[in-house]
Backbone:
């Protein structure tokens, strides 16, 4: 009897994890706790979306737009309903939630309800309802019966888009933000300026976009290229468009972090205003990829004055507490021979050009802090001394992030070997990419919180981000191909508990997600299956030898 009871208790204990892998529930990122019951809730044209608080209206709108777009069903929003409803509610009594994106989701044959600890939590919970809907367009919209209690592991869950190497329309940027939202991610890092284009209108310095927004050609093929297309290329966002995108993201509880690159990756700005460079130019907006030697002069006060003007216009457009100031890949060759830069090194008692780079970043940080905002910089900002309040984005591996956390600075992990979504995702990639090989399995294996850090230091790891550099992504279809399905794996790395995590179990849910990509009509890579086949073939060969 005792043995029977023990077996029963063991079964009970394992039920939740068993139900998470049940075939009908395939939520990604995997919820912290999920229990299922037999049966389903049927969504039909009489189903009401109940919103008691106007703060949850945007969440109901997102859901109703989704259901209309993908299933052709129009649902009404109502204040209340006693049956056949989906309700979106936010707990009012929690002033400062421990984890504001926490939510619970319960479905019965009568109703489905999501309750978040904040509006953002309710929105994230609504994404789980979306993932409970069928992946095929159907008039029979069943939502399985579940009880979910869920919250993210990491606070910063980001995706970057480089719009300098190739420019993307406001329409696509919004679509990209929806991809972020559909994965319960919450940061959009918008890389707005680089050598190949300045993409944000600055009213006081209009040439930044009039001149810096366009290049007179682009190399053909993989760097260094087989020629130049000699086609004028470019574009930029007006400040009104930026506001529109920021508001669109805010409705999805996504913070937009702008990046204005300095002191390197600045050639487009130099082309617009040649006094910004060490030699005085003339300069052209760069037509090829890789690192550029011409950078902002660090010895000329007029450079800082212009960049402060830029910040005066950029900062008010973005509610984000952060602005990203770049700081990566800044060659020091011009500074070494520039009398103004050398004078600055002498006057400020700096040791070398690395300290001059720190001087540059710290001077800008001081200005940005005085406006109530904080900076993020790529990990090169560690060289020559960190700016006092800077957050470090670690891209050349994790070492920069580890070092920054040890120095009590916040960190966002973006190591190339795990989250650079511009790298090839197949060993037999048939489109041109920047190179490298980053399989979805490798993305899925990532843990952004390094074990070498102690508990206190680990708290500095805010999260991680996928980076999408677009040298070899000239159109939205290619961007989609590069981010899917790896973005889906990354979303689980960022949201779900780090254990237990099983690729085999994830892959089953992912195969359903592939059908959801079809529903969305997005372009995605199937390389995962090709590479697995190569592996199996190799094994077979070894076995038969
Ligand atoms: C970078 O990839 N240059 C930050
Ligand atoms: Zn100089």
Residues:
């Amino acid at each position: 009897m005792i043995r029977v009871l023990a077996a029963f208790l063991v079964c009970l204990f394992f039920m939740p994890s068993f139900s998470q892998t049940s075939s009908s529930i395939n939520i990604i990122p995997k919820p912290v706790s999920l229990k299922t019951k037999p049966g389903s809730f049927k969504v039909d044209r009489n189903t009401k979306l109940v919103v008691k608080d106007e703060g949850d209206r945007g969440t109901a709108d997102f859901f109703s737009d989704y259901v209309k777009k993908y299933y052709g069903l129009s649902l009404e929003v109502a204040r209340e309903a006693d049956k056949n409803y989906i309700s979106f509610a936010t707990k009012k009594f929690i002033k400062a939630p421990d984890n504001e994106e926490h939510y619970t989701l319960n479905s019965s044959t009568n109703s489905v309800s999501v309750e978040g600890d904040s509006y953002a939590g309710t929105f994230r919970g609504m994404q789980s309802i979306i993932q409970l809907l069928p992946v095929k367009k159907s008039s029979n919209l069943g939502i399985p019966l579940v009880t979910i209690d869920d919250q993210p592991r990491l606070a910063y869950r980001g995706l970057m888009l480089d719009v300098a190497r190739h420019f993307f329309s406001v329409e696509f940027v919004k679509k990209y933000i929806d991809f972020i939202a559909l994965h319960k991610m919450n940061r959009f890092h918008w890389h707005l300026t680089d050598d190949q284009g300045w993409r944000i209108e600055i009213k006081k310095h209009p040439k930044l976009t009039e001149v810096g927004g366009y290049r007179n050609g682009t190399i053909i093929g993989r760097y260094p290229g087989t020629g130049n297309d000699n086609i004028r290329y470019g574009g930029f966002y007006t400040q009104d468009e930026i506001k529109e995108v920021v508001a669109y993201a805010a409705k999805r509880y996504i913070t937009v972090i702008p990046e204005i690159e300095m002191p390197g990756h600045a050639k487009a700005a130099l082309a617009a205003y040649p006094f910004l460079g060490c030699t005085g130019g003339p300069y052209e907006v760069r037509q090829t990829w890789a690192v550029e030697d011409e950078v902002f002069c660090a010895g000329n006060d007029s450079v800082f004055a212009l960049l402060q003007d830029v910040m005066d216009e950029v900062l008010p457009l973005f509610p984000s507490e952060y602005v990203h100031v770049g700081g990566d890949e800044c060659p020091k060759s011009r500074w070494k021979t520039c009398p103004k830069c050398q004078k600055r090194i002498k006057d400020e008692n700096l040791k070398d050009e690395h300290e001059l780079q720190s001087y540059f970043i710290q001077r800008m940080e001081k200005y940005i802090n005085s406006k109530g905002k904080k900076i993020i910089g790529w990990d090169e900002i560690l060289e020559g001394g960190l700016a006092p309040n800077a957050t470090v984005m670690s891209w050349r591996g994790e070492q920069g992030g580890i070092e920054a956390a040890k120095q009590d600075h916040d960190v966002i992990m973006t190591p190339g070997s795990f989250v650079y979504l511009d790298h090839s995702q197949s060993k037999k990639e048939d489109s041109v990419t920047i190179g490298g090989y980053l399989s979805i399995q490798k993305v899925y294996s990532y843990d952004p919180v390094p074990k070498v850090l102690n508990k206190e230091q680990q708290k500095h790891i805010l999260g991680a981000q996928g980076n999408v550099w677009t040298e070899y992504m000239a159109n939205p279809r290619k961007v989609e191909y590069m981010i899917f399905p790896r973005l889906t794996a990354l979303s689980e790395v960022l949201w779900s508990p780090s254990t237990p995590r099983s690729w085999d179990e994830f892959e089953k849910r992912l195969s359903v997600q592939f059908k959801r990509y079809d529903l969305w009509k997005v372009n995605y890579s199937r390389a995962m299956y090709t590479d697995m086949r190569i592996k199996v073939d190799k094994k077979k060969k070894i076995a038969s030898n």
